[in-house]
Structure formats: structure tokens, C-alpha cells
């Protein structure tokens, strides 16, 4: 496997929103919206908004893009097919704090300031719907996977309620109160039949409701301590993983809604069956000149069987656009500006992953733990993030007290499979939507990929250090967008029949 | 007195002896205080005994002293010193004989006393040393007692301290518990307080929100608007519908449809899982029955009348199995029955396995007093003997070698002797060489013999093992039959009483009886087959076998023959099948001209059988 990077240097972005169908990375620079082709990174469309864009979102059919300008209380919608078409929604004095698409891609849900109400604007008709009393919480709005229903957390008279609305005509289907102190979030099961609702961190409580509002089950693991931190459904709706502040993940089953197992996150790993990948301190430096030649076999290891060459690609031209965009930057980031004007180039780099980057540590391994400050709010403990792989086989978790490690659990055997310990804290991880492949970033210049066969890491090429703050997969799993503060780049994972073999070989070594 | 004796030092002992002598003597006449006084005073004055005696009796007082002595002696029971007076008035005369006798007696007495005294003294000494020892012991023990007492006190002190500590800790624990309780109470009160405050704040907040809502939303805010170039079509291409009661009902319907679909899907999954589990269960049961039935055969034959119920029960189970339809029925009764029967079978199997385990251990323990063992011992003895012989031979060879070397060495040392001996040496060398070769041959022979013996021993061991295994299995079977029979019998009665009401169950059992008998027969026959195979295995020349089968096949060129024939000789089956395939391809054109499969197959069979049993 080789990694082909499409670099978008010298371009500042707020956000790159990768779309489901044609995966066109849209990025916004101040008040310009740039839509590029996912393969060539050529600019498809360019839109200019009225003010600084703070949030962008593709519609489900990827025909429209929503740009939210929270400061002005404005939402601007652009059509990809008809560049001249435009739509502007003004929330006026009510203000705007959140904006999102409905699953049909024809309605926009705007949340006003102070969560006074949610306004549902339709692009098809003049109709406007209002939903009162939305609750300001972690995850108050959730649509079913099929886009049929919307569940909304509400707060009235100091009690929590959940409303289930039909998305086609925004009619209320069910309205029921939840037995929670302070509802923190709701989430539909992928099959759209079960709704999980959990209480705020002060109390460990998770409630499961059927689509028709019946309470299916309640689960409480313990009392008197900080409770749930993160929740994730397995893609098959079979399992519900609940990460809590006690550093454990509890997995509930969908038949009895009882706990199947409990995954603790100990700081030392003694079981020799568990593979611990430890990021090595020194990585082979990526020097352009050296990489001009195929690297020596020994250094490159088994993965060097793939093509390894640098080539400059300049068949897409962002030069002028970039320059003018940068010229209009309001806030001063002169260093990057100057550099940008000097060499506004987009480079594509193709090179093998550095093979000697991760070493397999021998057990027992003790992981670096953070001592949480007990007297502060939101202590850095508990399971901050968890995600199931698309094939339901693996669960990746991150314990906030061990921020450098990603834990990968085997769901079939219900045991710990591997631990990846990075040098710095893990920022974000995301599973490949097509296969069991996990991309991890730590805010450094590297992307890490894990698959059941092994682990690789890739240095993002470029002279300046590219700090990968977030990763986002293409829906096809062929490429990966890496976002830094003001750059983004695309990493193409070229699968030359060798993914299996390359990873396989890696696996043998581990 | 003892004390005094122990104090005396050796220098004084001789003197003290005297003194004691005198004292003892004086003690004999304790009444004479005077003499005692004299005695006491005389010791420091003069050590001369004689002078002392002279002091007692002088010329003047012979008479008095004699009379005094006489008196004294008579009081001590000695005969009087005076002669028997013949007349009262006559003066009594000193009887010399009596005096001498008395003296002698006194001397004897004195000696005796001395001896006794010595004895007493030694005893005294002994006792004194004993006493000493005991005193030492006593002192030591006292010391020990003291130390242990001290120790005890120390331990008691420690114990007390620990108890104190414990009490303190208990107190602390209690305090902590109280603290925890208090804290929990505080937490709870804080939580309620917090909740209360939150509620109040929220209410205020809600009021404010409401107010804001009124202020912001209710007045016609011109700004709240949407500018659209033109409205776009819906994603599904349909037009939006009006909200009516109908749509509500439709929504409900749809929701329930979705839920139903989900439940149906889940039910289907569960059914599938169930079916799979049932299949596994069925398989398990079948296997159990097949495992348990061959052992039940023997008791059936042995005691037909008593085991009738057992057999019918098994057959009933089998019949139950054969009716697949019952498996699809998941009604209560069937399930219960199934679980019951499985449980029963499982119990039987368990007891069986336990019995087997016991048996195996028993066999291991008892297995050493067999005939085979004796033969093995013989073998061992034999091999030992042989080894001894070999050893002897080796030694002989060695000595001979040594001798030879010595001879050679001496020959090498001394030239003249070698020259002298040369003529002999050549001859001797020749002879020795011959002998040497002979020895070598002998050695080789011995080695060969030994090898063959060890091989024989190994073979015997193997055979013995096999025999033991057979025996064990046979024993197991026997035991099992007995046990399972017992077990079954007791259970069967129960079961039958349960099932006796339903006549439906009897029919399949009757039907299945003949069917069931066949599989019973097959396993009993199979060991014979396998044993035959194993016997024929080492002897059968496989390659020639191939050739012959091939040739016969080519002769008759029939594929069907080949398919049936190899069953007789399984070990070669794979190889033959390969050849079969080749030949089937090759002989296909031939097979068209004449395939009188019937006769050819018999021919082939005959051939193959011949091959297998040379």
C-alpha cells in the first residue's frame, strides 16, 4: 500500500466537510467557500458568502451546501448543480447557534440563541415549522439512519422530554418524558427502532426507548460517582457501548439490554496475547532528496515492495485562487501568508509508510497515565471516545486518563486485542467506513493506521510541519482527509493488490 | 553434718577422720560426759593417743577404771570383765579372757563402724554432688522461669499494645465510617440543594426565555425571513402533502410497520439461531445414542427379560429422532421431553466416563500381576544376561588388547629381545590377528543377538500394551453394561409410567425396532474388519497391488468395478483412486465396447481379495 498525499498547503481552512456521495471536500476560507474534486483537488465551485463562514455542511444528496454565519445569524445555501441558485435564511434578532440539514436535504434546522426554538426551513415550500423548548445539551438532536424520524431532547418545567417527529412533514409522533435528572444526549440505534438516552455525568443512567415511546430498559452501573461520558451503537444495533468516568466500557446487548461485558482500561498490560504497538521515539527522517530514489530494501522493510517515489503533480491549479483568497485574509497570519505567496503549490506525494515506526512492545507494558486534577470540573478521566468498526468486529476506545493510547477490543471474543501507544495525546480516530481500518491522529505530523494485520504510520510530506488535528475518511475508504488548523490534505490509500499482503507481512512481523 | 563434711578440705580430712573416729567412739559411751570433755579438751592439747589413754588410767585408779569400763561395757551389753563371783564377799577378779574378748569385739565393731562410716561418707559425697547438680539445675530452671516470665510479660505487654492499637483502629474505622456517612449525607443534601437551586434557576431562566420569546418572536420581525431564488423540488420528487388526521394515522401505521419489521427480523434471526442450536442438540443426541447403544447390546443379550424396557426406551428415543417433525415443533411438551432425554443421556454418559476413569486407574494399578509381566521379566532377565555376557566379552577383549599392547611395548623397548623374539612374534602376530578377527566376529554376533532381543522385547511390550488396551476396553464395556443397565432400568420405569398413557408413542417405537437393529449390528462387526485390515496392512505389498488392480482394471475396463473394489482395502484407497481417475479417463473409449459390469466386477473382486491376503 502506498499513501498518496494531495497536499493543500498555503490554504487556510476552517473545516473540510467531506461528503457522502461524491466526496467533494468543501473548505471555506473566511467568507469564501471552495468546492474541489476529491481526486484531483481541482476547484469545482467557488461561492462567496456575506461574512465569515463558521460552519459548513453538505446536504444528504450532496446537491447543496449550507454555510452558517453564526455571528450574523445567517445561513446561506448553495447549489452545486446551479451555481447561480442561492438561498439566504436570516434568523434576525433571535440569533443562531446551530444549523443542520434534515436527512432529506430539503430542510434546514436552525437553533436560535438560548435554545428558544428550532426553526425548520423548507427549500421546497414556504412553510416554516417551529419546535419549542429544545434542550441545550451535548447531543439533543438525532435522526434515524433512514432519515425518517427525528428525536429531539426537550426541557419543560424542569423535566426532560423526548419528542419523536416524522421528518417528512415534521409532525409529532411521540412525546414522552424521560426519567432523567438532566438528559445529556440521545442517539438512535442504526436500525432506527431503539433510542438510547443518557443522563448527565452526575448520574450513571442510560434509558432505552422503543420507537413508539415505550421504555425498554434502564441501565445503571453504579451510583454516587461521575457517570456516562460517551456512548456508541454498533453498526448492527446489536451492542451499545457505554464509556464512563470510571474508565470502563460496558457493553449492553440488544435482547435483554443487560451488560454482556465490562472492559477496564488498566494502565499496565500483562497479558502476552495483547499486542502493544509503541510509537518509537525516532522515526526515519523524510528527506526529499533521499526519497527521490527507491529507498534501500533493508530500510524500507517489507512494505517497500510498493512503488516509492516522489512526484510533483501540478495538474490542478489553485495558484491564483489561493493568492487572492489569501490576500483578503483579515486576521494576520503573515508568516503563512508570505510563504503562501512565495510558493503556492500543491504537491502530491506518493511514498511508502515508514515501516520502523511502531515497535511491538513486550509485556508487561505500563502506559503513561495522567494524574487527573480532582478539584477541577470535567476531569480528564473516563472513556472519552469510542467507535465500532463498520463490520462490528472491533471497538476502539480512548481513555482520557491515558490520552496517548488507543485500545482496540475484539468484539467477537470480547477481549482486548491491541493497544497503540503514541508519543502524544490522541486527538481523533475514525474507522474506515468500508473495512476494519482505523485512522488515528495525534496533532503531530503523522497519520497512524491500524488494521487487524498490523499498524503503520505515515509522515505527512511537506516542509512545514503539518499538524493533523482531525481525520476524515472518504465514504469509499480510498482516501483520507487530514485537517490541520489552516491546511488540509488528502491522503490516498492506493490499494495495489498489496494492501492485504503488505499488512499481512506486517502482521507476521508483529 | 553433711554441710560440715562438704566444707572440709582434703588437708583436714585425715585429722577429721581421727576426730570422727573418736567422736564415734565417744558416742558409744555418751553417758561419760567427763571423758567427752576430756576428749574435747585433749585434742588441741596433744595429738598423741597414747598419752590420752594414759591419762585415763593411771597406776592409782586401775581399779576404778576397770570397774568403770566394766560398767560401761555391761551397759553396752558386753559380758562383764570380772569373773563370776563365787562368793558374795569375795572380791571379783578381772577376767582376762573376757577383757580380751571384749577388746576383740570392740575392735571388730570399730572396724565395722569405720567401714560403715566410709560408706556413708562416700554416699554423702555422692549425695552432695547430686545436690550440687540439682541445685545448679534448680538455679538454671529458675533463671529460665524468670526469663520466660519476663518474656511472657513482654508479650502480654505487646498484646495489650496491639489490642490498644486495634481498638484505636476500630475507633478510627468507625470514625471514618461516620465521616463517610456524614459526607454522603452532605453530598445528598448538596445534591438536593443543587437540584433545588437548579430548578429555581431554570424556572427563572424559563421565564426569561418566555419573555424573550415574546419579545423577539411575537412582534413581526421583518428580518426573520428566507430569500430563495426559486423553490426546489423535493428529494423524492413528490409534492408535500397537507397535514391532516390522515397523515397522522399514516405516520403511526408506518412507525408500527417499521417496528414490526424489526421484530420480525429479530424473530427470524432468533429462529435461525434456535434451529441451529436444535441441530446441534440433535446431533449431540444422536451421537450420544450411538455411543451408548453398542454397550447396551450385551446386557440385552444376556438378560432379555429385564432389559426389555431399556431397549425399548432407546428405540423410542431413536424413533423420536427419526421423526424430524417433532424437532420443528417447539411446544412445551416436546421441549421438556427433549431436555429430559438429553439430560438422562448426559447423566448416563457422565457416569460412564467416570466409571471409565476409575477403571483406567484400576487397570493401571492392577496391571502388573499378569502373565505378560512375567514374560517381560524373563525378557529383562535375558537381556540382562546377554548384556553381562557382552560385558565379559568386552573385558576379555580389553585385557587381550592390553596384553598385546604390553607385548608390543616391551618389544619396542628392547631391541635385542625383539630381535630374539622376532621369529615368534611374527607367528604370534598372525595368530593374534586371527584371534582378533574371531573376537570381532563374536562381538558382532553378540551385538546382533542383543539387538534382536531388544527388538523382540519392544515388540512384546507393544503387544502387551495392545492386549491391555483390549482388556481394559472389554472390562469397561462389561462394567458399563452393568452400570448403564442399572441406571437405565431405574429411570425407565419412571419414564414408562409417564408415557404409558399416550399410545401415540408406542407406534413409532415398533416401527423403528427393525430399523434400529441394523446400526447396532454394524459397529459390532466393524472391529473385525479393522483388525483384518491392520493385519493385512504390513504384509500387503502396496505397489504391486496397484499394478495388479490396474492390470485387472485394464483387462475388464470397467469403472464401476473400481468404485466398489477399493472398499476392501482402505489404506490404499487414495492412491487407487488416483489411478482410478487416470484409468477412467484412459479407458473410457474401451468401456463403450463391452461393459459386462456384473462378471467383471466379480473378477476384480476376486483379484483384489487375493492381493490383500497373500
TrEMBL record, chain A:
<dbReference type="InterPro" id="IPR011044">
    <property type="entry name" value="Quino_amine_DH_bsu"/>
</dbReference>
<dbReference type="Pfam" id="PF00400">
    <property type="entry name" value="WD40"/>
</dbReference>
<protein>
    <submittedName>
        <fullName>WD repeat-containing protein WRAP73 isoform X3</fullName>
    </submittedName>
</protein>
<dbReference type="InterPro" id="IPR001680">
    <property type="entry name" value="WD40_rpt"/>
</dbReference>
<dbReference type="GO" id="GO:0005815">
    <property type="term" value="C:microtubule organizing center"/>
</dbReference>
<dbReference type="InterPro" id="IPR015943">
    <property type="entry name" value="WD40/YVTN_repeat-like_dom_sf"/>
</dbReference>
<dbReference type="InterPro" id="IPR052778">
    <property type="entry name" value="Centrosome-WD_assoc"/>
</dbReference>
<dbReference type="GO" id="GO:1990811">
    <property type="term" value="C:MWP complex"/>
</dbReference>
UniProtKB/TrEMBL annotation, chain B:
<feature type="region of interest" description="Disordered">
    <location>
        <begin position="292"/>
        <end position="317"/>
    </location>
</feature>
<feature type="region of interest" description="Disordered">
    <location>
        <begin position="504"/>
        <end position="547"/>
    </location>
</feature>
<dbReference type="GO" id="GO:0035735">
    <property type="term" value="P:intraciliary transport involved in cilium assembly"/>
</dbReference>
<dbReference type="GO" id="GO:0036064">
    <property type="term" value="C:ciliary basal body"/>
</dbReference>
<dbReference type="Pfam" id="PF11559">
    <property type="entry name" value="ADIP"/>
</dbReference>
<dbReference type="InterPro" id="IPR021622">
    <property type="entry name" value="Afadin/alpha-actinin-bd"/>
</dbReference>
<keyword id="KW-0963">Cytoplasm</keyword>
<protein>
    <submittedName>
        <fullName>Afadin- and alpha-actinin-binding protein isoform X3</fullName>
    </submittedName>
</protein>
<dbReference type="GO" id="GO:0034451">
    <property type="term" value="C:centriolar satellite"/>
</dbReference>
<keyword id="KW-0130">Cell adhesion</keyword>
<keyword id="KW-0206">Cytoskeleton</keyword>
<keyword id="KW-0965">Cell junction</keyword>
<dbReference type="InterPro" id="IPR052300">
    <property type="entry name" value="Adhesion_Centrosome_assoc"/>
</dbReference>
<dbReference type="GO" id="GO:0005912">
    <property type="term" value="C:adherens junction"/>
</dbReference>
<comment type="similarity">
    <text>Belongs to the ADIP family.</text>
</comment>
<feature type="compositionally biased region" description="Polar residues">
    <location>
        <begin position="527"/>
        <end position="547"/>
    </location>
</feature>
<feature type="coiled-coil region">
    <location>
        <begin position="131"/>
        <end position="218"/>
    </location>
</feature>
<feature type="coiled-coil region">
    <location>
        <begin position="376"/>
        <end position="403"/>
    </location>
</feature>
<keyword id="KW-0175">Coiled coil</keyword>
<dbReference type="GO" id="GO:0007155">
    <property type="term" value="P:cell adhesion"/>
</dbReference>
